[in-house]
UniProtKB/TrEMBL annotation:
Residues 188-215 form a coiled coil. Keywords: Coiled coil, Membrane, Transmembrane, Transmembrane helix. This is HAMP domain-containing protein. GO terms for biological process: signal transduction. Signal peptide: none annotated. It comes from marine sediment metagenome. GO terms for cellular component: membrane. The keyword Transmembrane helix applies. The lineage of its organism: unclassified sequences, metagenomes, ecological metagenomes. Residues 148-200 form the HAMP domain.
Amino acid sequence: DLTRIIKNIAQKKLENIRIYNKNAEIKFSNQDSELDRMTNIKDEACYICHHTDPPLSELSLSERTRIFTSPRGYRLLGIISPIYSEPGCSSSACHAHPAGKRVLGALDLVISLDETDKEIAVYKKWLVAFAAFIFLITSAVIIFFVLRFVKQPIKKMIDTTHMIANGEYLNQINVNQVDEMGQLSVAIDTMGKKISEKQAELNRQRNEYQNLFERVPCIITVQDRNYKLIRYNKEFYEKFKP
Protein backbone atom coordinates (compact mmCIF):
# COMPACT_ATOMS: atom_id res chain seq x y z
CA ASP A 1 0.00 0.00 0.00
CA LEU A 2 1.70 3.21 -1.19
CA THR A 3 -0.11 5.40 1.32
CA ARG A 4 1.15 3.32 4.23
CA ILE A 5 4.67 3.37 2.82
CA ILE A 6 4.53 7.17 2.53
CA LYS A 7 3.34 7.47 6.14
CA ASN A 8 6.17 5.23 7.29
CA ILE A 9 8.72 7.25 5.34
CA ALA A 10 7.52 10.53 6.85
CA GLN A 11 9.80 11.41 9.74
CA LYS A 12 9.84 14.18 12.27
CA LYS A 13 11.52 16.63 9.91
CA LEU A 14 9.28 15.68 6.99
CA GLU A 15 6.14 17.79 7.23
CA ASN A 16 4.48 16.49 4.08
CA ILE A 17 4.98 13.90 1.36
CA ARG A 18 2.57 14.30 -1.54
CA ILE A 19 2.20 12.72 -4.96
CA TYR A 20 0.23 14.75 -7.51
CA ASN A 21 -1.21 13.35 -10.70
CA LYS A 22 -1.19 15.25 -13.97
CA ASN A 23 -4.44 16.99 -13.02
CA ALA A 24 -2.92 18.52 -9.83
CA GLU A 25 -4.88 16.09 -7.65
CA ILE A 26 -3.20 14.76 -4.51
CA LYS A 27 -3.33 10.99 -4.92
CA PHE A 28 -1.06 10.02 -2.04
CA SER A 29 -0.11 11.91 1.12
CA ASN A 30 1.05 11.26 4.66
CA GLN A 31 -1.93 13.37 5.79
CA ASP A 32 -5.27 11.66 5.14
CA SER A 33 -7.13 14.97 4.95
CA GLU A 34 -5.26 15.87 1.77
CA LEU A 35 -6.11 12.73 -0.25
CA ASP A 36 -7.98 13.33 -3.52
CA ARG A 37 -7.88 17.07 -2.95
CA MET A 38 -7.49 19.27 -5.99
CA THR A 39 -4.84 21.96 -5.71
CA ASN A 40 -4.77 25.33 -7.36
CA ILE A 41 -2.47 25.22 -10.34
CA LYS A 42 -1.18 28.65 -9.29
CA ASP A 43 -0.03 27.39 -5.90
CA GLU A 44 3.67 27.90 -5.28
CA ALA A 45 4.48 24.20 -5.60
CA CYS A 46 2.70 23.90 -8.96
CA TYR A 47 3.31 27.31 -10.45
CA ILE A 48 7.04 26.81 -10.95
CA CYS A 49 6.20 24.41 -13.79
CA HIS A 50 2.73 25.58 -14.80
CA HIS A 51 3.48 29.26 -15.32
CA THR A 52 4.02 28.45 -19.01
CA ASP A 53 1.84 26.66 -21.53
CA PRO A 54 2.67 23.87 -22.05
CA PRO A 55 4.11 23.30 -18.55
CA LEU A 56 7.84 22.88 -18.14
CA SER A 57 8.95 19.28 -17.89
CA GLU A 58 12.52 19.89 -16.70
CA LEU A 59 13.81 22.29 -14.07
CA SER A 60 17.05 22.56 -12.13
CA LEU A 61 17.11 21.64 -8.44
CA SER A 62 17.33 25.28 -7.37
CA GLU A 63 14.23 26.11 -9.45
CA ARG A 64 12.32 23.21 -7.90
CA THR A 65 13.21 24.25 -4.36
CA ARG A 66 11.17 26.69 -2.31
CA ILE A 67 11.32 28.00 1.25
CA PHE A 68 8.18 29.27 2.94
CA THR A 69 6.71 29.75 6.41
CA SER A 70 4.27 27.36 8.03
CA PRO A 71 1.09 28.57 9.78
CA ARG A 72 2.86 27.82 13.08
CA GLY A 73 5.61 30.28 12.27
CA TYR A 74 8.64 28.14 11.40
CA ARG A 75 10.25 27.77 7.99
CA LEU A 76 9.68 24.89 5.60
CA LEU A 77 11.78 23.63 2.70
CA GLY A 78 9.84 22.21 -0.22
CA ILE A 79 11.30 20.21 -3.12
CA ILE A 80 9.08 19.11 -5.97
CA SER A 81 10.27 16.51 -8.47
CA PRO A 82 8.44 15.43 -11.64
CA ILE A 83 7.56 11.75 -11.99
CA TYR A 84 8.59 10.76 -15.50
CA SER A 85 7.04 7.98 -17.52
CA GLU A 86 9.33 5.04 -18.14
CA PRO A 87 8.94 2.44 -20.92
CA GLY A 88 7.94 -0.16 -18.35
CA CYS A 89 5.16 2.07 -17.04
CA SER A 90 3.17 2.58 -20.25
CA SER A 91 3.55 -1.03 -21.34
CA SER A 92 2.47 -2.49 -18.00
CA ALA A 93 -1.10 -3.74 -17.68
CA CYS A 94 -1.58 -1.91 -14.37
CA HIS A 95 -1.04 1.56 -15.83
CA ALA A 96 -3.44 3.39 -18.06
CA HIS A 97 -1.57 6.22 -19.78
CA PRO A 98 -0.29 6.58 -23.32
CA ALA A 99 3.34 5.93 -24.17
CA GLY A 100 3.83 9.52 -25.38
CA LYS A 101 2.98 11.03 -22.03
CA ARG A 102 6.31 12.07 -20.46
CA VAL A 103 5.31 13.45 -17.05
CA LEU A 104 2.85 11.45 -14.98
CA GLY A 105 2.75 13.70 -11.95
CA ALA A 106 4.98 15.16 -9.26
CA LEU A 107 6.45 14.21 -5.89
CA ASP A 108 6.43 17.02 -3.33
CA LEU A 109 8.57 16.77 -0.19
CA VAL A 110 8.20 19.41 2.52
CA ILE A 111 10.84 19.37 5.25
CA SER A 112 10.68 21.32 8.51
CA LEU A 113 13.55 23.75 9.07
CA ASP A 114 12.51 24.45 12.66
CA GLU A 115 15.29 22.42 14.28
CA THR A 116 17.80 23.62 11.71
CA ASP A 117 16.90 27.26 12.34
CA LYS A 118 17.18 26.71 16.10
CA GLU A 119 20.62 25.18 15.66
CA ILE A 120 21.63 28.06 13.39
CA ALA A 121 20.38 30.54 16.02
CA VAL A 122 22.46 28.77 18.68
CA TYR A 123 25.50 28.79 16.39
CA LYS A 124 24.97 32.50 15.73
CA LYS A 125 24.86 33.20 19.47
CA TRP A 126 28.03 31.19 19.98
CA LEU A 127 29.64 32.99 17.05
CA VAL A 128 28.70 36.40 18.48
CA ALA A 129 29.97 35.36 21.92
CA PHE A 130 33.19 34.03 20.40
CA ALA A 131 33.66 37.21 18.35
CA ALA A 132 33.07 39.32 21.48
CA PHE A 133 35.57 37.18 23.41
CA ILE A 134 38.18 37.55 20.65
CA PHE A 135 37.52 41.30 20.55
CA LEU A 136 37.98 41.64 24.32
CA ILE A 137 41.14 39.53 24.32
CA THR A 138 42.57 41.46 21.37
CA SER A 139 41.68 44.79 22.99
CA ALA A 140 43.28 43.71 26.27
CA VAL A 141 46.47 42.64 24.48
CA ILE A 142 46.62 45.91 22.52
CA ILE A 143 46.03 47.98 25.67
CA PHE A 144 48.73 46.02 27.51
CA PHE A 145 51.28 46.55 24.73
CA VAL A 146 50.41 50.26 24.45
CA LEU A 147 50.80 50.76 28.21
CA ARG A 148 53.90 48.59 28.50
CA PHE A 149 55.83 49.57 25.40
CA VAL A 150 54.54 53.08 24.61
CA LYS A 151 53.02 54.93 27.56
CA GLN A 152 55.48 53.80 30.26
CA PRO A 153 58.62 54.55 28.20
CA ILE A 154 57.24 57.95 27.17
CA LYS A 155 56.45 58.79 30.81
CA LYS A 156 59.98 57.80 31.84
CA MET A 157 61.48 59.95 29.11
CA ILE A 158 59.31 62.95 30.05
CA ASP A 159 60.33 62.60 33.71
CA THR A 160 63.99 62.36 32.72
CA THR A 161 63.82 65.50 30.56
CA HIS A 162 62.28 67.37 33.51
CA MET A 163 65.18 66.19 35.70
CA ILE A 164 67.68 67.34 33.08
CA ALA A 165 65.97 70.75 33.02
CA ASN A 166 66.37 70.90 36.83
CA GLY A 167 70.08 70.08 36.64
CA GLU A 168 69.91 66.33 37.31
CA TYR A 169 71.77 65.07 34.27
CA LEU A 170 72.76 61.48 35.09
CA ASN A 171 69.39 59.77 35.61
CA GLN A 172 69.04 56.60 33.53
CA ILE A 173 65.70 55.98 31.79
CA ASN A 174 66.16 52.17 31.70
CA VAL A 175 63.91 51.38 28.74
CA ASN A 176 64.98 47.88 27.74
CA GLN A 177 63.59 47.94 24.22
CA VAL A 178 65.28 47.53 20.84
CA ASP A 179 62.70 49.58 18.93
CA GLU A 180 62.47 53.32 18.32
CA MET A 181 61.45 53.91 21.96
CA GLY A 182 64.66 52.24 23.11
CA GLN A 183 66.73 54.31 20.68
CA LEU A 184 65.05 57.52 21.86
CA SER A 185 65.72 56.67 25.52
CA VAL A 186 69.40 56.02 24.73
CA ALA A 187 69.57 59.36 22.90
CA ILE A 188 68.08 61.19 25.92
CA ASP A 189 70.52 59.44 28.29
CA THR A 190 73.41 60.39 26.00
CA MET A 191 72.15 63.98 25.85
CA GLY A 192 72.03 64.12 29.66
CA LYS A 193 75.62 62.85 29.90
CA LYS A 194 76.84 65.37 27.32
CA ILE A 195 75.08 68.25 29.10
CA SER A 196 76.59 67.06 32.41
CA GLU A 197 80.08 67.05 30.89
CA LYS A 198 79.61 70.52 29.39
CA GLN A 199 78.24 71.87 32.67
CA ALA A 200 81.16 70.39 34.58
CA GLU A 201 83.58 72.04 32.16
CA LEU A 202 81.81 75.40 32.53
CA ASN A 203 81.95 75.09 36.33
CA ARG A 204 85.65 74.29 36.17
CA GLN A 205 86.37 77.32 34.01
CA ARG A 206 84.21 79.53 36.20
CA ASN A 207 86.06 78.41 39.33
CA GLU A 208 89.37 78.93 37.59
CA TYR A 209 88.51 82.47 36.57
CA GLN A 210 87.06 83.14 40.03
CA ASN A 211 90.30 82.06 41.67
CA LEU A 212 92.33 84.22 39.31
CA PHE A 213 90.01 87.16 39.93
CA GLU A 214 90.28 86.89 43.71
CA ARG A 215 93.91 85.87 44.22
CA VAL A 216 95.92 88.18 41.97
CA PRO A 217 97.97 90.76 44.02
CA CYS A 218 96.52 93.73 42.14
CA ILE A 219 93.32 95.69 42.05
CA ILE A 220 90.70 94.45 39.55
CA THR A 221 87.33 96.09 39.05
CA VAL A 222 84.46 95.77 36.60
CA GLN A 223 82.64 99.00 35.71
CA ASP A 224 79.87 100.01 33.36
CA ARG A 225 80.02 102.82 30.79
CA ASN A 226 79.25 105.38 33.45
CA TYR A 227 82.12 104.09 35.53
CA LYS A 228 79.75 102.63 38.03
CA LEU A 229 81.41 99.86 40.02
CA ILE A 230 79.86 96.47 39.27
CA ARG A 231 82.40 93.96 40.62
CA TYR A 232 85.79 94.06 42.29
CA ASN A 233 88.29 91.65 43.72
CA LYS A 234 89.49 91.06 47.24
CA GLU A 235 92.51 93.35 46.89
CA PHE A 236 90.30 96.32 45.96
CA TYR A 237 87.94 95.59 48.85
CA GLU A 238 90.72 95.48 51.44
CA LYS A 239 92.17 98.78 50.28
CA PHE A 240 89.08 100.88 49.65
CA LYS A 241 86.30 99.21 51.64
CA PRO A 242 83.58 100.34 49.21
